[in-house]
Amino acid sequence: MAYLELQNLHRNFGPVKALDGIEIQLGEGEFLSLLGPSGCGKTTALRLVAGFDRPDAGAIVVDGKDLTSVSPNKRDMGMVFQAYSLFPNMTARQNVAFGLRIRGKKRADRNKRVDELLELVGLGHASNRYPHQLSGGMQQRVALARALAIEPRVLLLDEPLSALDAKVRVQLREEIRRIQLELGITTLYVTHDQEEALSVSDHVAVMYSGRIEQMGSPAEMYSAPATPFVAEFIGTMNRLEGTVADGGVEHGGTMLQIEAASGRPHGERVLVLIRPETVDVGPANGSTGGVNTLVGDVVTQTFLGPVTRLKIIGAGVDVIADVPTQKALALPVGTRVAAVLPADGARLLALTEDVPALAEEPAPAGR
């Protein structure tokens, strides 16, 4: 049964549709990431749940209670912002205790709760430091502890890691997930970082232009994107346009035997989506191509640690492939290679419209 529901939410800012009828159902204790480019409406949705803004239409329901018209201070939501928003004149302990003090909790109860939370976020040793004496990661841990102190119904996080450096981001996202699982708190997380969303979430909802393009588990979103935009936004994807013919797909003069093409109408224009890690690459050895094999030259190599990304270009060929770095040493720039595409690892979508641009858009009410 759904614990948090966003029911047909609409929000307009003048002529701009920030939200265009989004629907979300999230079970108690589940973690959902709203993922998308700037201007897609994800922060607007979070603000509506928090009560900082009101929808033009639709409802926000938590545990069966309609909170759409309830003021923010009565919704019992815990909010963590991108910019920490700590009180500079208060210590870490005082910041965490603030919400409890406002709610009239007894001093002994406050102190016990604050001690528990500071230990939970790994800051028991820094409880008497002021924000300016803490690193960015430590400040965000204090902000998280403060949001959790009131035992909120729902934890809301608005790009909480975007101001931190890469190593700290990875460490803190793992801590957020650990704490969320330990407390069993329903969580709504806003991010534009697809790696972040896929690594911490039970569910991911990809948004574009005020709508949810697709929602599912991280594995589903990565392996079975439902639209060209989702395929482009989550991970890196080869996009090959072609035409269904003879149970396969004809692309630039090469026949691709793609299992997903079975049963599709002859002549249909389709988009073949193939992840770079599923492309097998080796020296061409005089090959000019063939079924599922494209021949071209390695034009760039991008070192990614255990794998190296090759960009391969030739006549009618433009693909990327992730190969083990040790193997890539034998395929330097300029090497003529054969790229073999998988028959069973491709996703097919009808080519009915262009993929929307991923450029950032104006955001009248946030991202």
Shape: elongated
Q: The CATH topology of the largest domain, please?
A: Rossmann fold
Overall domain count: 2
* The CATH homologous superfamily of the largest domain: P-loop containing nucleotide triphosphate hydrolases
Largest sheet: 6 strands, mixed
Structural features, described:
This protein has 367 residues and is α+β, with helices and mostly antiparallel strands. The longest helix is centred in the middle third of the chain and has 18 residues, at 166-183. It is built from nine helices and 20 strands. It is 24% helix and 34% strand.
Question: What would the keywords be for this entry?
Answer:
367 residues; alpha+beta; Rossmann fold; OB fold (Dihydrolipoamide Acetyltransferase, E2P); 2 domains; 6-stranded mixed sheet; 5-stranded antiparallel sheet; 9 helices; elongated; disordered C terminus
Outline the secondary-structure elements.
Elements: E1 2-13, E2 16-27, E3 31-35, H1 42-50, E4 57-62, E5 65-66, E6 77-80, H2 92-102, H3 107-120, H4 136-149, E7 154-158, H5 166-183, E8 186-191, H6 194-200, E9 203-208, E10 211-216, H7 218-223, H8 228-233, E11 238-245, E12 248-251, E13 254-256, E14 269-274, E15 280-283, E16 293-303, E17 307-314, E18 317-324, H9 325-328, E19 336-340, E20 346-350
Parallel strand pairs: 3-8, 3-9, 6-7, 7-8
Antiparallel strand pairs: 1-2, 1-4, 4-5, 9-10, 11-12, 11-14, 12-13, 14-20, 15-19, 16-17, 16-19, 17-18
Helix pairs in contact: 2-3, 2-4, 3-4
